[in-house]
């Protein structure tokens, strides 16, 4: 179980990115992490992975996250974490050597599914292909917790739709996905839980089953919690028109 207790992060500029976020993520869930730009989603993931210093506690099965257990996490980011000069075949050898739980069958199956070349340097891939390969590595590492930060940028709608379906079919019961994305309406039928950050604070946490029983969609949940104002566009256009006159 991954536990975050009073997780806070303040940057040197004084900006408070996270404030007292407490969250528990058992194994076996697909969790959507939602919030506006700057809400703290990427910061939260980077704190979990040890990329950023923070205050509070982050533990995995009651133990701090260190080099001993960091292999239980993998990360797919739109910033990319692969080696661009290497081929997928080279990456496969690297992962075989460094991750004892590497899922080679899954790696090859996903490479075939996305029709990615095994022997071309990844830097020569299109943006969409690079993002697909980033996700393939994260899913194949053999981690219990797979963190994904806007992994589908650059992929067309049909590739994304197919991927969601494949994801549901391949995950093992002990694997947990924490997925940060703005594509809420696309993923709301594939996640089991929605966690919402707003201005660095935990603003909402609900299972999709509870939302469904309440007659709400995940998008409804996000808009209500963030107090979205549906008339803001009309008001902005009105103000702009008035200024021009």
Keywords:
6-stranded mixed sheet, about 35% helix, alpha/beta, 10 strands, about 240 residues
How would you describe this structure to a colleague?
This protein is of the alpha/beta class. 36% of the residues lie in helices and 24% in strands. It is built from 9 helices and 10 strands. The strands form 2 sheets. Strands 6-7-8-3-9-10 form a 6-stranded mixed beta sheet, with helices on both faces. β9 and β10 form a beta hairpin. α3 packs antiparallel against α4. The longest helix is centred in the middle third of the chain and has 14 residues. It is globular and about 55 Å long.
In terms of topology, how is this protein built?
Layout: E1 2-10, E2 16-25, E3 30-34, H1 41-48, E4 55-60, E5 63-64, E6 73-77, H2 88-98, H3 104-114, H4 127-140, E7 145-149, H5 157-170, E8 176-180, H6 184-187, E9 193-198, E10 201-207, H7 208-213, H8 218-225, H9 232-244
Parallel strand pairs: 3-8, 3-9, 6-7, 7-8
Antiparallel strand pairs: 1-2, 1-4, 4-5, 9-10
Helix pairs in contact: 3-4
